[in-house]
Write the structure tokens for this entry.
Amino acid sequence: MEEILASIKRVIAQDGTAAAPAARARRAPSAEPAPTPEEEDVLELDDPVTEESGLMSSDVAAASRERLAALSAIRQRTEAPADAGALEAVVRDMLRPMLKDWLDEHLPEIVEQLVTREIARITGRSL
């Protein structure tokens, strides 16, 4: 996992002008130059991961599945309230479309800000 993150950091850190000649060189099959040491370090993600060559141990995978199941159970409990009063049901039905509209309007911007902040934190430079 750390190898993948290091590879992603290197790719992000590379200057756009350095990436363009490398891309052109990969497109020209007849005259491919030898890869530079930086290109050799890049991890290609085109091979599918099989169960035998998993990226994490079986203990970590099991723990992740348990956490996802717990999150799913929480969601199911909130979607099917037990003996909610009539007023709560009416309010919930009224709020659902309002919440959906608000999320449709604001969620992409929130996600973009969080991803940008995380990339800046990882790379050490602001975007």
In short: The chain has a mean pLDDT of 75. The chain is about 70% helix and 0% strand. The CA atoms of residues 22 and 35 lie 9 Å apart.
